[in-house]
Every structure is written in structure tokens, then in C-alpha cells.
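ok trying this again, last paste got cut off
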Amino acid sequence: MLENYEPVSVRLHRLLTNLRADGKEPRIVTVMLSAPGTDVCVFRAELWLGDQLMATGHAEEVRGQGNVNRTSHVENCETSALGRLCESYSPNPDPAKRPSREEMGKVQRMGGAPAGGSAPQAGPGDASPAQLGKIRAMSKSLGKLPPANLDGMSKREASALIEKLIAESQAASGEDPF
């Protein structure tokens, strides 16, 4: 259930408030590790106290995976890295609550089973079992892992990925597609 998880903004506010109450001057730095403009975004968030690195958090988001990432995958990635940073620095981390509310929302949107619930049933716009099987088989034959959001793909997304994998397979074998 999403209400069991805290938003990143709450975690970040609490962390900074507690550090400042202890007389510390925290500095948070976020760094985009991926090339700007690419479909995969990777961020690292760092917590510094003076010249000492105290904690880091990393996140990865893919453009177009889920509603938020259709328009804001970079911003979403930075926020996720900050959420990981906050939990990494926590003096008493709760492994069950390490994911943030935003991360658990992503799990639900991508078709994962929320804590205490069951996985959602496939809808009419979801990728078919045949498409999912083809993606898994083609990924394996190319020596790749299937994408993490495979079970949450729409029919259109699955079709586009199958076309991409076919092109990669043809390029790898030297086949002329025409």
C-alpha cells in the first residue's frame, strides 16, 4: 500500500532539518552520470558534511517508461536518487521502507505487486503473453536481459521493442533486411 511509504520531499526535509538541528551544515549535490538527452538517465545524489562524503544514492530511469517518465524522466531520476540518499544516511534504516512512495508507485504502474497485494490483471492495452515471450527469447538470444518494465508494457511498446530487437538481431548476423 502506497500510504506505507514516504514521499522523497518528506524524507529530504526531515534529513536536512535533523542535521541542521544538530548544528551541521549539510550540502547535497546531485550529478547526472548519463549523457544529457539520452533515453536512459542515471543520477547520483551525495550528502556532504564539510569535506566529508557521508552518503550517496543512485537512480536510473528510462524515458517513456510510465506516465511520469514520458515527460519528466530526468527530474524523476534526480528525485529518486535523493530518496535513496535519504534512506542511505538514515541512522535506523527500515529495509521494508527503503523504497520511497514514488518508487513504489512506479512498481504499481509497471505491473508489480504492491506489498500486501496481488499483481494487477492484464488489461486490453497490455502486451500479450506472446509478445512478452518473444521479447524474452530475443533478448536472451542477443545476450541481453529483458527490460525491467517488461511486464508493464503496452502492446504498442512491446511491438516497438520487438522491431528494435529484430533490427539488432539482423545487424548482429549481417543479414540484409531488404
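PB: full thing came through this time. Residues 113-122 have pLDDT under 50 and may be disordered.
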